[in-house]
Amino acid sequence: MYDEDVGASPGPFLYFGYASNMLKERLTSNKLNVVFKCVAKLEGYELQFCGEGKGWHGAMASIQEKPGSHIWGVVWQLNQADQERLNRQESTFTPKEVDVTSTDNQVYRCRVYTQELRATGKPSPHYKDIILRGARQNNLPEGYIKCLESVEDNGYAGEIDIYKQIMEEYTTHASNRSGAKPTSKSKNNSVDQLRLVGAESALGYVVVVDSQFCVDHYFHFCGYGKRWQGAMAAIHAKPGSHVWGVVWELDESDKEHLDHQERWYLAIQVDVLGTDNEVYHCRTYLLEDTLTTTPSPHYKEIILIGARQHQLPEDYIKFLESFADNGYKGEVHTYNKVMEIVHKEEKEKNETL
Question: What does the entry list as the binding residues for substrate (predicted)?
């Protein structure tokens, strides 16, 4: 059964995204107004990486006809007014019309972009990461996602501006999607308290409860934080691993300020184990990112100051010290602000001795 040929009408048209354009934020970061239609399969084509995308520092995805093969992707509906902007985004590709089939066997005539067959190559890790995010975001078949994961990247380790732009949009949307609620605890039956486990650094009027570790998670650096000029710290689930950090107790009234500070992260609840073997149910923040990158020296230093300040285990501090930084030598205003407080507290402490 055919759906109406939207692409040929003066109104909305359908577009089939099969690579980075499966991720909604890839399109919205370019000011395209898109509406999700469905996940669909294109028969008789295969996915290839070829040529060189200068902005992505690696080979670009394209599709080539191949009987017996198929490609999964996402059907988006766009306004006709957005077609020129989409054409500019895909300026090195050629548009054509194809028929794709949704999971409920509906056939849609869609616009798609291809490039002439050139020498095959490897995509950058950044480009591959965006493709995988789009595939997972739209729940493509697990077997197809594994095929995408198996694509070898070119190992490019530099910065990619378009990747940072997309990830800023992505983390903003992820933050807006977060609906996690903190667990409150009463203090003197009058003031609600919020417990936070900090795997990196935390500032504000807080009470330190204890040094803790979070079981079955691991610590790494990923994505890009503009205010810190480098990768940000994150934790992800990993059985058998653990992350050390600090539990802070805050007034419930401070939650909004904390959420704003961590607005690029998702708020979640975790159970952490204290050195006194007590389990604490805490709010923490999760960055939806898997591409490992390097932090600025400034950010890494703040993390290490916090780890030493609270006397985390020496081997864990050495683990934190082992992370390479990106060598950024410019000014980081957030770092300056934090260090002013650190130096002030050190001065006050020395004066009382």
Answer: 15-20, 127
pLDDT recorded at residue 192: 37
Non-local (6+) Cβ contacts of 167 within 8 A are: 25, 223, 224, 289
Q: Is 169 tagged catalytic?
A: no
Q: Using CA atoms, how far apart are residues 125 and 130, in angstroms rounded to an integer?
A: 9
Cβ proximity of 156 and 57 under 8 Å: yes
Geometric angle at alpha carbon 18, from 17 and 21, rounded to 5°: 50
Residue 77's pLDDT is 95
The predicted structure's pLDDT at residue 190: 28
Q: Write out the binding residues for substrate.
A: 15-20, 127
**Residues 350, 340: Cα–Cα separation, whole Å:** 15
Which listed residue (25, 90, 262, 288) is catalytic? 90
Q: How far apart are CA 298 and CA 133, in angstroms?
A: 29
Question: CA 210 to CA 212: how far, in whole Å?
Answer: 6
Helix (H, G, I), strand (E, B) or coil at 331: coil
10-residue mean pLDDT profile of the chain (353 residues): values are 43 93 92 94 96 89 94 95 87 91 96 84 92 91 93 89 86 53 31 47 39 72 87 82 86 84 82 79 78 89 92 90 93 92 83 69
DSSP-derived secondary structure for 78-131: E-GGGHHHHHHHTTTSEEEEEEEEETTS-EEEEEEEE-----B----HHHHHHH
Can you spell out the DSSP letters for 29-71?
Answer: TTT--EEEEEEEEEEEEEEEEEEEETTTTEEEEEEEEEEEEEE
Indicate the pTM of the whole model.
0.56
- What tokens were used for 218? 């691991």
Cα-based angle 303, 285, 342 (whole degrees, multiple of 5): 30
- The Cβ-side half-sphere exposure at 92, using a 13 Å CA radius, reads 13
Q: From CA 214, how far away is CA 289, in angstroms rounded?
A: 19
Please name the residue ranges forming H helices in 187-264: 255-261
